[in-house]
Amino acid sequence: MLTSTQYLLVNSDSNLVSVLLVLDKENDDLYKKPSMTQCRICFVHNAIPFIGFGFLDNAVMIVAGDYIDSTLGAAFHLSVLAAAGLGNTMSDLVGIFFGGYVELMADRMGLPQPKFSAAEADSMHARISKNGGQGRAFKCFRSAV
Q1: Residues 108 and 52 in one domain
Q2: What's this model's pTM, rounded to 2 decimal places?
Q3: Contact, 50 vs 135, CB < 8 A?
Q4: Does 86 lie in the same domain as 61?
Q5: Interacting residues of 6 by C-beta distance below 8 A, sequence separation 6+
Q6: What DSSP letter does each residue of 63-128 carry, written as one string?
Q7: In this structure, are residues 90 and 6 in contact, taking their beta carbons and an 8 Å threshold?
Q8: Range of the domain at 18
Q9: Which range has the worst mean pLDDT, 5-19, 34-48, 88-102, 108-122?
Q10: What are the phi and psi torsion angles at 25 (to 5°)?
């Protein structure tokens, strides 16, 4: 039986030689998917900083937007939407400067970190867990609730 280190040469119709890597599914890490426990750990590990960042982002946006509306908006006759846009800009700046701090605080919470092999980390299951935890589409909903 061929293992992952053995190659099979095959001639194609155009007389070109292509190399096919034949993988043994029982012994090769490329076919191992992470366990559901590791996927859950990965999801939570990525979700906690985004929840904290979403709360910080929305809190700054609301406070800054209200302050800009009541001070600059009244002085320069800015619309509420313009004040909200400036508040969002301030929130983005705060996020740039304090995003790393939020991640550091999440790491200090002592949550377990996912322990994937290189092949498991590259698997579709691990990517879905990571991207699901970082769900930016749900960031505003999570922090507003």
Answers
A1: yes
A2: 0.62
A3: yes
A4: yes
A5: 22
A6: HHHHHHHHTHHHHHT--HHHHHHHHHHHHHHHHHHHHHHHHHHHHHTTPPPP---HHHHTSHHHHH
A7: no
A8: 1-29
A9: 5-19
A10: -65, -30
Based on the number of CB atoms within 10 Å of its own CB, is 18 exposed (0-12), middle (13-18) or buried (19 or more)? exposed
Lowest-confidence pick of 12-26, 68-82, 101-115: 12-26
- Whether residues 58 and 24 share a domain: the answer is no
Q: Given the structure tokens 């509420």, which residue do they identify?
A: 80
pLDDT tens profile 56-96: 888 999 999 999 999 999 999 999 999 999 999 999 999 88
H/E stretch holding 60: helix 36-70
Q: How confident is the model at residue 18 (pLDDT cuts 50, 70, 90)?
A: very low
Token reading at 4: 């992952």
Identify whether the C-beta of residue 128 lies closer than 8 Å to the C-beta of residue 116. Answer: no
Look at phi and psi of residue 15 and say left if phi exceeds 0, alpha if psi is from -120 to 50, else beta. Answer: left
Q: Please, which residues have CB within 8 angstroms of residue 40's CB and are 6 or more apart in sequence?
A: 129
Domain co-membership, 55 together with 123: yes
